[in-house]
Every structure is written in C-alpha cells, then in structure tokens.
Amino acid sequence: MKVKTLVLASSNNHKAKEIGMILGRNYQIKTQEEFGVPFVPENGKTFSENAYIKASQLAKNISIPVIADDSGLEVLSINNQPGIYSARYASIGATDEENINKLLGALKNRPSSERKAKFICSLVLIEGHDKQKVSYFNGEWKGEIANKKTGRHGFGYDPIFFVPSLKKTAAELSEEIKNKVSHRAIAINKLKNFLENQ
Ligand code: IMP
Questions:
Q1: Residue of minimum CA distance from atom 14 in ligand 1
Q2: Residue 2 C-alpha to ligand 1 middle, in angstroms?
Q3: Total domain count, the chain
Q4: I need a surface site. Which of 37, 87, 133, 162 has the fewest CB within 10 A?
Q5: What is the DSSP string of 2-28?
Q6: Using CA atoms, how far apart are residues 190 and 22, in angstroms rounded to an integer?
C-alpha cells in the first residue's frame, strides 16, 4: 500500500506522533507548521465546529488531505463543563494543574454519582480536488473524576480521570494502553477504517 500523507491542523507534535502511531506505517502525518500556514482562533460552539474551523483554514492553503481534531472533558453534573473550554477552564493560558484544581474544587464533596465524566474527540478529514469532501469521526471515553491526582503519564486531566473498567486513572496507563482505549484512539481508528475502505 502506498504511504498516504495527511496534514494535521495543529502545531502539537505529540498529537501528530500519537495519530501516526495509531494509523500505522501506511500513513505519514505532517503538521501545519511545516507548511507555514497561520493558525486561526477556535471560536466554534462545539468540538466538531472547532475541528472544522482548524481543518478548513489549512485545507484552503494546501492540496494534501487535511485532518484536525478537537477534544476535551465533559462532566455531566456541572452542565458538561469544562467542555470546549477544557484547555482554558481556569483561565486563558492556564496550566494543567490549575485546570485540575478548579475542577476538583467544583466537585468537592460530590458523591461518585455526580462525578461521571467523558472525554470527547471530534476529528475531521477534508479531502478531494476541490476540498469539498468533509468527513467527521467521533470518539468518547467514559470515566469518573477522582478526588485527587494519581499517575504520572499523559497530560491535561489524565491524573484525575478514573476509568472504572481498568481501575486506574488515565495518567496511570501506559501510552500504549491509552492509545488503544482513549477518545482520540476511537476517533482515529474510525478515520483509519474509513480511509482503508475508500
Ligand atoms: P485539544 O483540543 O486536543 O488540544 O484538547 C483540549 C484540552 O482538553 C486539553 O488541553 C486538555 O486539557 C483536555 N484533553 C483533551 N484530551 C485529553 C486527554 O487525552 N487527556 C487529558 N486531557 C485531555
């Protein structure tokens, strides 16, 4: 099979590597930075709108198929917050630690029934000569917000995202395991399936 190149609308090399690992060796992932295309503000109201905003800006400027993802954490008992604001929940430019502390504070003394959460990932692919072909792939990963941080792997809310079926937080999982079960892995595997059946 010929290696297929996809350009990720992001400057996040970690994300590009993760997507590359899940898609496997028949795919090469490049990033927006390599093409010098400027980034646009993510001002959508949903994960999929934000993914589309990022991808379409890049797709206008290059002729290779483009992918973009947008992801975050939703906690049911607090109106699905932090949602699309996950990266800037505590403030613009907040650290993971600040976002985690704000969420732990919002859920303080809440029983486990009110700590149900899910990570969401919306991935978009834009392809075709005129870049008119837009496809969406979504992934969800269910868990609970723990009372305290545990684990050293991963990023973002991983240390407080407890996965009952694995009895571990996402930050206690190896990269290999997380890449099999996460919201992003689910969405990326759907994309892979789609590309392989085209
Ligand atoms: P992005 O859209 O993928 O950059 O993610 C936005 C924010 O959602 C990140 O800054 C994290 O706070 C949170 N997030 C998304 N995916 C994960 C994950 O796999 N683990 C922990 N936090 C995540």
A1: 72
A2: 32
A3: 1
A4: 133
A5: PPEEEEESSS-HHHHHHHHHHH-TTEE
A6: 11
| Environment class of 193 (CB within 10 Å of its CB; exposed 0-12, middle 13-18, buried 19+) | exposed
Q: Which of 69, 70, 96, 130 is catalytic?
A: 70
What's the 19 CA to ligand 1 centre distance in angstroms? 14
Q: What is the pLDDT along the chain (198 residues), one digit of tens a residue?
A: 789 999 999 988 888 998 999 999 999 999 999 999 999 998 999 999 999 999 999 999 999 999 999 999 999 999 999 999 999 999 999 999 999 999 999 999 999 999 999 999 999 999 987 778 999 999 999 999 999 999 999 999 999 999 999 999 999 999 999 999 999 999 999 999 999 998
| CATH code of the domain covering residue 190 | 3.90.950.10
Q: Which atom of ligand 1 is nearest to the CA of 89?
A: 12
Q: Say how many Å lie between the CA of residue 85 and the centre of ligand 1.
A: 10
Q: Which domain holds residue 44?
A: 4-196
Concerning whether 70 is annotated as a catalytic residue, the answer is: yes
Structure tokens at 35: 């093409």
